[in-house]
Amino acid sequence: MNGRRLAGLITKETLQIFRDPSALGIAFILPLFLLLLFGFGVSLNAEHVPIGVVADHPNPTTDPLVAALRHSRYFEVRPLAGLGPARDLLSRREIDAILWLRNDFARQTLTEAPATIGLIVNGTDANTARLVQGYVLQAWMIWLAQQNQAAARPLGLSVALQFRIWFNPALRSQDYLVPGLIAIIMTLIGALLTALVVAREWERGTMEALMAAPVTMAEILAGKLLPYFVLGMGGMALSVALAVFVFAVPLHGSVLILALASALFMLVALGMGLLISSLARIQFVAGQIAIVVTFLPAFILSGFVFDIRSMPAPVQMITRILPARYFVSILQSVFLAGDVWSVILPDMAVLAVMATFFLGVTLARSRKRLD
Q1: In angstroms, rounded to a whole number, what is the distance separating the alpha carbons of residues 222 and 149?
Q2: Would the pLDDT of 305 be above 50?
Q3: Cβ(153)–Cβ(309) below 8 Å
């Protein structure tokens, strides 16, 4: 590989980028738009959930429990006169749950028998239903502890649990989703940067001039890879800055390790884009292939939203060939837990093997021929 020829190809590609700023839009505008859209729009938290409270006989015993729900950010309490109207509201999706305090609730709290409450939850959205159950249970336990403290009696449990939540103590879904979202965005950007740009050269006929030039195919591929690698890393830096300063996601690990892992993943994504461009020489086709082959599998099967361990065994095997799976694991570890080498090193090794594979296959398939 000749250094002067390679420098000339890099200069040519850089000038082409500034003359046709679509690559700059893919590298910087697209991650900005997608991060803001998904970062603020996608949430696994359930807040301000409308819940109907039916107290058959309101009294000083039920009031503190209702007040605990009312002062929680998780609920919007709607007092209702009876269970019948509450069921109607639940069926019309105007409320998501019903808390039913029976007329003998106050009497039961004064006896040794356990006092019961009824909770009816709309299970259409299973995730929200589970969260509502947990939030109501938490409010119930807080109310129970206050009642026993006021009556100067023990809680009645022989074991007291003390919860410690590691890596995401605030339980913010953004802290979990945004690092994974960076991997999904970088997958799409890396594949599009090279797939569309090279396909555009085939459509415009400028690739023929490169084929006729006294340069090797390796120099052509390197001349296209390096400028877009710099662009992709710039988009990655922008995404990390947005995650830390806009979404307030903590970054506990090393920035150097994050940069090295990102560089490996960017080589994988760019290699996939180059391979796509060698198969499809039309921009529309190359873009569709890039989205279907890279973005959609990464979004669904990388562990970004859905836990891989809860997937069927055959699907779990499929996820092992997706580069985004390993990059999501690295990002979530570096951001939330720190430099966990038992996680980072194996994942980086897999990314290095994948980068070598995609770039090697692309080089093997590329010939200085027009057919």
Answers
A1: 71
A2: yes
A3: no
